[in-house]
Write a structure and sequence with these properties.
Blueprint (H helix, E strand, L loop, with lengths): L1 E2 L4 H4 L14 H15 L7 E4 L3 H14 L3 E3 L16 H9 L10 H17 L5 E5 L1 H10 L12 E6 L6 E7 L13 E4 L1
Parallel strand pairs: 1-4, 2-3, 2-4, 6-7
Antiparallel strand pairs: 5-6
Helix pairs in contact: 2-3, 5-6
Length: 196
């Protein structure tokens, strides 16, 4: 899974959920382009790219795919949390509310959102025996974590998180592939980092 490149909303530090189709910034497009080298160096490469219908994820997927030449499939269920009245509000107001799992007025409840995320990811991986790349949003990582009682504390733009099935303590080993090579602990479980 990979979060889209920087969007216009990210640059303004405003919350863009599923109701604001914020475009990529020039930096966001460059982040997606820089990510191409990560995929070229992977030992296990994706066979298909799944992306949300929102332009920031769709454009990130298309840029990444310029060198991979894989089938692209749009799945709206991996779109960002619909946050209703919180759309466009500053991060310093909305992040604490989301962290406390308060349901956004006029938006999706956290339960509805995480069930949608589960449905979208299940659909994405059930239709391929080979690795799948899901280009999505920071909230999708949060929704996935909620399904397993885990916390994704920070998901950076255009950093690849490789999920590999294991037995315990969590259904996947998570390996972080980024341009900066820095080790960020973003989960309540250890996160391994691979340098690109």
């Amino acid at each position: 899974m990979i979060r889209h490149g920087q969007s216009t909303a990210n640059a303004q530090e405003l919350l863009a959920g599923g109701g604001w189709d914020a475009e990529l910034t020039d930096l966001g497009r460059q982040q997606a382009k820089d990510t191409q080298s990560i995929f070229q160096n992977l030992a296990i490469k994706p066979s298909v790219i799944i992306h949300s219908h929102l332009i920031r994820a769709r454009d990130t997927a298309r840029i990444i795919n310029e060198t991979l030449h894989l089938p692209l499939h749009e799945i709206p269920d991996v779109a960002e949390h619909n946050v209703g009245e919180w759309e466009g509000q500053p991060w310093d107001i909305t992040r604490p509310l989301l962290d406390q799992r308060i349901d956004p007025p006029g938006g999706e409840s956290h339960v509805t959102f995480r069930n949608r995320v589960k449905r979208g990811i299940t659909h994405a991986i059930a239709h391929s025996d080979d690795p799948v790349l899901i280009v999505c949003h920071g909230g999708v990582f949060r929704g996935l974590g909620d399904l397993y009682g885990l916390r994704f504390h920070r998901i950076d733009n255009c950093v690849l998180y490789q999920f590999t099935p294991i037995d315990a303590p969590f259904p996947w080993q998570i390996l972080r592939h980024g341009q900066d090579g820095q080790d960020h602990v973003t989960l309540d479980i250890p996160l391994k980092t691979a340098s690109a």
